[in-house]
Amino acid sequence: MSKCILIVDDEPNIVISLEFLMMREGHEVRVARDGEAGLAAVRTHRPDLMVLDVMMPKLDGFAVLEAVRSDPELSDTRVLMLTAKGREAELKKGLDMGADAYMPKPFSTRELVEKVKELLALTD
Amino acid sequence: MISAPFIVGVSCLYLSLLFAIAYWADRRADRGRSVIAHPTVYALSLAVYCTAWTFYGSVGRATENGIGFLPIYIGPTLMALLWGSVMLKMVRVSKSERITSIADFIASRYGKSQALAGLVTLIAVIGVVPYISLQLKAVSWSFTILHEYPLVRMPEQTSLPLWHDNAFVVTLLLAVFAVLFGTRQLDASERHEGMVAAIAFESIVKLVAFLAVGLFVTLGLLGLGDTGLDRLTTHPDIAETLGPLLAPSVSPFQDWFAITLLAGLAIILLPRQFQMGVVEISDESHLRRAIWLFPLYLLLINLFVVPIAIAGLSLFPNGQADADTFMLTLPIAFQQPWLALLVFIGGLSAATGMVIVESIALSTMVSNDLVLPMLMRLWRRRTPPADLGRLLLNVRRGAIMGILLLGYLYYHFAGEAYALVSIGLISFVAVAQFAPALIGGLYWRGGTREGALAGLSAGFLVWIYTLLLPSFARSGWLPTAFMESGPGGLDILAPLALFGLEGWNSITHGLFWSLSANIGAFLLVSSLREPNAAETRQARLFVDALRQRQPTSAPLWRGSAEVRKLTAMAERFLGIKRTREAFARFAEGRGFESSDALPADAETVSFAETLLSGAIGSSSARVMVASVTEEETLGLAEVLDILDEASQIRAYSHELEQKSQALEEATGELRAANLRLQELDRMKDDFMSSVTHELRTPLSSIRAFSEILFDDPKIPLDRRRHFLGILVSETERLSRLVNQVLDLAKIESGHADWKNETLDLREVVEQAVAATQQLIAERGIHLEREVPSGPALVWGDRDRLIQVMVNLLSNAAKFAPNVSGLIRIRLAAAEDLWHLCVADNGPGIAETDLELVFEKFRQTQVGGSKPAGTGLGLPISRQIVDHLGGRIWAEDRPGKGANLCFELPRYPADT
């Protein structure tokens, strides 16, 4: 069953890989290149899950997460955070702010796909 | 028109004015609003130096020696330069020890010796009383001369009965004045405010009078007035007498030197100068103004001496008038009664000022250092009266009367004699005898009581022999024979040519021998033994006076005492009220509730002694205190221990202060260094964090696509190729990044290898263009070059400069729009530099980002997405260009694009 997934990242090649992986799983994929565009896309497309990078121009991942979590209409949105900053503190911060999962870059494609499945299963 | 009663009336009126000023100043002082606590008043009061001898006598000396009168004022002027040290020391010690006179000062320095104080007093009285006579004579003469107005007639030696002699009347009047204002209180260390105010006023009056005559005569001489003086100077007979004045010379030099030295010493050693300069000063900062104001006063009062002398000699070529009276006879001759009267008042000011201050100073010395020691001897056998304070005040009053009467008697009997006329400088030589003991004592710790006594005695005896006796002989009171051939025909002992020293002026001769004997005896006898305990303590106090703002002697006393006995004794001199107040203040200062709680320790005993010193002098005070306490003798070793401890504590605290200052500085430096280190640490963390982030980003793509390709063999070929292309480019990016990070680290740490050589920037441009050609062409960007025809030589590393150029070009290629993109390279000479710019027609750089683009990992976006690149290109370029002595910067061309430029020095510099 097809879900809508939003990818928010400013690295074009990573976006390509994520897009490929998610489409291969049969999901509908939307892409945003920075935080502001990402936030706008969440509101328009109401994705089931967003894959959110932390270090991005304009609005960083934490700010996007905060905005999403403070909006009751978007409360169903699953958030998987991806970041090149693999420190414990960052990870804890993301989870505390309401991310559903947190994966460090470089990520394992298999783990990512499974994590996405897991999160989407929770929605049902 | 100027009758005797008129002159007497004016004089009395003037003296009453002085009384009124003195009374007013004393009243103000009682109410705590001192009028004399002002540096100008202090400097004016020092002008008591200028006596009637100056006022009338300078002109007289000038007619004889030309400018030979000047050393008497040059000496004090030069000495004033030393006041910052000598006088300041004297003032500080005198204030803390409550010194009352010069005798007290010298005695205090050598362990508070009564014998020394007595000797100094004796010398001062013998040396100075004739000088007082001179003042009385001046007043009397000037009165007589003025009385003859309008005739110019010299007075004859009077043999009038006492009550008709105006000098006697003047003496009595001055005695009354001195008694009233000099002995209001017993504590002689307290200031006589009224007296000082009156003296300062007198200094103004005598200066005004002198300047008035000077201006009158000088303007006349210059032919500006109608005095007719200009005609007189052309008279041929007069030319000869004017000789010394018109051809000034400083020969004989030894006389100039001697009199300069003599006057310089007199300005601090004369009892009246010590009184005014040291005892009466209210604040030591007043010295600073006196150092220039007093010499200025001397200059002004001497300004017109020569013109007046010339005028006098011209007017009285045959000696109708004594040159010493020109000040007065000139105005009379020109029929200027008011000017003559003003001169008379000026002379009266000069004379009375000297007489009053001198008699008060001498009376303090006589009562404290001659009479009191004798009384104390008497009191050992008989019970002293209860109110010693009143007794001592009466002694002091009697001493004033006695001194003035002595002065009058000397005047009366010496009259016209040489012994009176020449007394001014002879008197100076007598007080100059104090110099070795006093000045030596301020700078040398080795002097002893016996040394000072020996020096003073030797100098004084030589003074009597070489100056006093000859002056008696010339006055006809002694046979003159001994002057020429010496006593018993021993030529070598002739008083005016001692040991064959001939051809010197008698003053120079006397000063030389008396001071030689004095200094010799002082040094020789002092060297016989080490200073004892008391002398050592006082030596420290005097010599080190400038080290402390308020020098205090370490309380060097051990024994048993009772506070009750101490206060009882003080009360007998100072009165109950004053004593109790003083002790109460002292107790409060030490943190006790009342004086009853005071312990009878060294500090208390020392306080009582100092308190008493102000009233009866330090040496008498020491004896008095010793009489009511039982003192154990402290050995020299113990005294030195205590003193060393005190000075060590001072030294330690000074050292501590310095160390804590140094520590504070070091702490500050460390704190700054620590902040800097923290900053560096933070920067390093930031850099590491940025680097890992930058490394992980391409790594993520590489891992993701590798896994995708690995897991899924069925991916279509074109997509597979696309993914593999990404893999290749991300790997390249990764290795570029690693290289650049290493490169940057190397350059920053200074470990990079630089293969510097002379190179042509045109070649650098060409090679960089070749390296980026493909990239530029792919994006359809047009490239323009503008380079000079000749070589553009700089000193640098070829590969690194190509790297800079490639960075700039790929940067420009990144931002220039596709298709319509344009990059322009421009290389041009600018003064001693080569200037190179790479311009693009991209979006430009915001003003605020112009510097930020050179920061590491700071990338600006192109069209909303992240640009390819490492974010290290420009930072590295900056490092390289900086290293080669150039600079690199970014410019924004609004609406046209960005401009990145660098410049490098030409090499060699002159091409």
UniProtKB/TrEMBL annotation, chain A:
GO terms for biological process: phosphorelay signal transduction system. One of its GO terms (molecular function) is DNA binding. The keyword Phosphoprotein applies. InterPro entries: Bact_response_regulator, CheY-like_superfamily, Sig_transdc_resp-reg_receiver. It comes from the Bacteria. Residues 4-120 form the Response regulatory domain. The keyword DNA-binding applies. Keywords: DNA-binding, Phosphoprotein, Transcription, Transcription regulation, Two-component regulatory system. The modification 4-aspartylphosphate is found at D53. Pfam families: Response_reg. This is Response regulator receiver protein in cluster with DNA polymerase III epsilon subunit. The lineage of its organism: Bacteria, Pseudomonadati, Pseudomonadota, Gammaproteobacteria, Chromatiales.
Automatic annotation (TrEMBL), chain B:
Its main location: membrane. GO terms for molecular function: phosphorelay sensor kinase activity; transmembrane transporter activity. It is a multi-pass membrane protein. It catalyses: ATP + protein L-histidine = ADP + protein N-phospho-L-histidine. It is found in: Membrane. Keywords: Coiled coil, Kinase, Membrane, Phosphoprotein, Transferase, Transmembrane, Transmembrane helix, Two-component regulatory system. InterPro entries: HATPase_C_sf, HATPase_dom, His_kinase_dom, HisK_dim/P_dom, HisK_dim/P_sf, Na/Glc_symporter_sf, Na/solute_symporter, Sensor_HK_Regulatory. It is an enzyme of class 2 (transferase). One of its GO terms (cellular component) is plasma membrane. Residues 649-683 form a coiled coil. PANTHER family: HISTIDINE KINASE (PTHR43711:SF30), TWO-COMPONENT HISTIDINE KINASE (PTHR43711). This is histidine kinase.
